[in-house]
Amino acid sequence: MKKVLIAGGGLAGLAAAYDLTQAGCAVELFEAREILGGKVSAWKDADGDWIESGLHVFFGCYEELFTLMRAVGADTYLRWKAPVCHFTLPGGVTYDIVSWRGMPFPLHLLPNLVTANQFSLPEKLAYGRALLPVLFGDGRHADAQDDISYAEWHRRQGLGDNLLGGMLLPQTLALKFLPPDELSAQVVLNVFRLFLRRDDGFQVAFLEGSPEECLTQPLVRAIERAGGRIQVKAKVKRIELDAAGQVRGFVVNDTLHTGDAYLCALPVHQMNRLIPEVWRAQYPYFADLRHFVGVPVMNVQLWLDGRLTERDNLLFGGAGLTPVYADMRLTTPRYAPASGNTLLEAVVAPARDLFHLSDAEIIAVVWERMKAYYPTVAPRLNVVKSSVVRIPQSVYHPKPGIERYRPAQVSPIANFFLAGGFTRGHRFFDSMEGATASGRLAAKAILCYLSRNAP
Ligand SMILES: Cc1cc2nc3c(=O)[nH]c(=O)nc-3n(C[C@H](O)[C@H](O)[C@H](O)COP(=O)(O)OP(=O)(O)OC[C@H]3O[C@@H](n4cnc5c(N)ncnc54)[C@H](O)[C@@H]3O)c2cc1C
């Protein structure tokens, strides 16, 4: 039986481990932390409340992740919400972007001519016209925009700042935790292509409970049932090379582990630390990884002594800072506090200028923003408990010009492979879907390598 060693127990590593065990390989997966799931991980605090690394939703246009969830029985935990993006703005102003379920593309977007009343009809028509080459055709227009930022593309189309600040800012902060002038237009436009061409494209699902119980553990059980071995608190510290420059083994903590093929499914900044200097000097494939950095982001949870909203969906913060948030009491039934009050969870972005603040200061800033969005209700409520999770380098920064450096899963080293949202070959960038797709692509490539090198 061929043996594959995997570094990293996020979705990319777990998806690869699942496919490889199903294909009959002996798999050993090493995860540095005490818990699995990586950026989707969740754990219980001293009170028994779940703390999440990040607010996660599943989009209707995902495919690989849903296939995997069905295979391990985790799809039953998905809780689908109405196909509406609800934007909240200071002063209690709101607007919606909706999809008309059951109507063919592009008719499902028509209701937005009358909703989304934050924008004038001429603005909406101009935006629709600018998006024509993005939404119709083979996607070449979007792919060709990697050298400019989304903000630059927007201005070149003659589109105004009202749309950029009022709609695109919260959307890009929600997607990649950065404003539109720091993101490649290619990435933003390709995401629009995925979200807008299907009537369920931007419809979201939450999980019934924590990602640990509803996603990671079903995967782990399926991997272990098929004979895979998963070790936590097992950091891959070094990649040991043989005389030919191929991988001889992973040094995990202080022990050398060997196999027939090796997969690194790590965040790219951590991957960079592991790549042997000799590979970097010899192969642009590895040298190019230096272009990638992770985006800083925070996730906050606020337990309130009353109810803030009755909206059971992902909510958009139109003024940035909390670009997406949700009342988990409604969206995620197993999180509902016994008090029946709101458990608010919010992504904080852009976050780089907030890292020097204390947790209490961050919570205060976030709560002030909520008071602006809910000026009649929020001032009557108090935050009774809170948590802040800081991720200094999260998803990779898809800055203009970086697309050409994204590596394939197959590396120049025959027995060494990469996975993670930053790798190429899938359409979903750094997301749960992108990570899963990359892991499955890596598994396929490894199986192909192993079959070519069968004794
Ligand atoms: C706040 C936030 C909100 C998000 N919201 C969404 C969302 O709503 N929808 C969506 O689709 N995506 C969302 N994402 C993105 C999504 O979480 C990631 O794209 C995806 O989980 C990445 O998976 P991965 O396996 O590639 O990497 P990771 O999840 O980073 O997994 C890598 C693993 O490798 C481990 N590791 C690192 N170094 C070593 C080592 N030396 N040895 C062994 N193990 C090591 C890490 O501990 C980690 O567990 C969000 C991300 C964040 C941060």
Task: Sum up the structure in keywords.
binds flavin-adenine dinucleotide; single chain; 455 residues; five-stranded parallel sheet; Polyamine Oxidase, Chain A, domain 2; globular; seven-stranded mixed sheet; 3 domains; FAD/NAD(P)-binding domain
Question: So what's the overall shape?
Answer: globular
Structural class: alpha/beta
Helix % is 25-40%
Content of β-strand: 15-25%
Low-pLDDT residue intervals, each spanning 5 or more residues: none
Number of strands: 20
Summarize the structure.
This protein has 455 residues and is α/β, with parallel strands linked by helices. 32% of the residues lie in helices and 21% in strands. The chain is built from 14 helices and 20 strands.
SSE inventory with pairings:
Layout (H helix, E strand, L loop, with lengths): L2 E5 L3 H12 L3 E5 L11 E3 L5 E3 L5 E2 L4 H8 L6 E3 L3 E6 L3 E6 L22 H15 L4 H4 L6 H7 L4 H16 L8 H12 L7 E4 L3 H15 L3 E3 L4 E6 L5 E6 L2 E3 L3 E4 L3 H7 L2 H6 L1 H4 L9 E8 L10 E3 L3 E7 H4 L11 E7 L9 H15 L9 E9 L24 E3 L13 H21 L3
Parallel strand pairs: 1-2, 1-14, 2-10, 7-16, 14-20
Antiparallel strand pairs: 3-4, 5-9, 6-9, 7-8, 11-12, 12-13, 15-18, 15-19, 16-17, 17-18
Helix pairs in contact: 1-8, 1-14, 5-7
The protein binds flavin-adenine dinucleotide.
Flavin-adenine dinucleotide binds next to α1, β15 and α14.
